[in-house]
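ESCALATION

Customer reports they have been waiting on this structure for their group meeting. Please prioritize. Original submission:
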Amino acid sequence: MEEKLTGIYLTYGEEEEFYVFVDSKNETLFLAELPEGKIFDSKGQEISKDDLNAGDTVELYGTGAMMQSIPPQYGGVKKAILIKKGNGKIADQYQSLIDEIYQAPNPDEIPTLSIENSQTNGIVMTSIHPCKYNWNYTDKAGKESHKQSADRLWDEEPPEIVCDTKDKSLNLYFSRKPKSITVKRYNVDGSISEEEKLEFDGIGIKLEDVQSDSTYEIETLWENGSVQYRFKIVG
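Update from on-call: job pushed to the front of the queue and completed.
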């Protein structure tokens, strides 16, 4: 049986590219992945995520399970209904909550990657540091500068992510919106086994069916340059 959760849609980020919901009764934030092709207005007409505006009230129908993340995530959303149009004034009421989870990055900061997955002990979030980057930026004085990773970062052993449950998916969360994301899976001998493009959807990116004893590389492009991350799946 599907359960309903009502939330106010909020956006944030440099380009308002991220979204989150607020439970107005408890004044707490929660994540929920809006299902493509299953978003409707109050008259039952299909709409898209792009039709939603900050301050809109949305009913979410899902499993009722709230996953342990920060903010918590309402999982298994099967349908979303826009029941009331809002405006910026409504959204502004919850800006202090947004400020608790997001601060605009400095132009010289290399984007970070966090990976969330299901493990035997529960939901685990793992920080993955860049192993290679080329980053151009303009500092506060207006001077153009450049950052490049040291060779030793690439040579370091990649961090391990334990996948020891039936759920072999990963949720990828970037601190800034990438222009493109390419995922490569490497065999033990170093050859590329798989390569695919992923799309950013406003919360994170789901990587399905990862393979144990495989090394993954995430290549990202941004306005300021390129960043690569690596990790190994075990379990």
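Sent to customer with the following note: The chain has a mean pLDDT of 90.
Escalation resolved.
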